[in-house]
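Recap from last week: sequence in, structure out.
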Amino acid sequence: MHPKDFRWNDMVLAYDAAANSWGDLGRVPALPNTRSAVVKTAPGTFLVINGEIKPGLRTDAVKFVTFGENLADWSDVAVVPAPVW
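Predicted structure tokens:
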């Protein structure tokens, strides 16, 4: 199956514990993935590295995301290079 056929959630949701409510920060502009590495680079900014875009298929994509009050701003970063054997 194509990765889009799995219909994984591409929404970024945020939970506010003080208000006991969920908020919507928009959609991820790339294929949604799971099991990514996430690295905090500054307050409210993160690198999202690789992840599975469907079971058993990992992506080499790296995304940079900055979280604001009511939105997530995404940009692409250079892909992770393949290992040299």
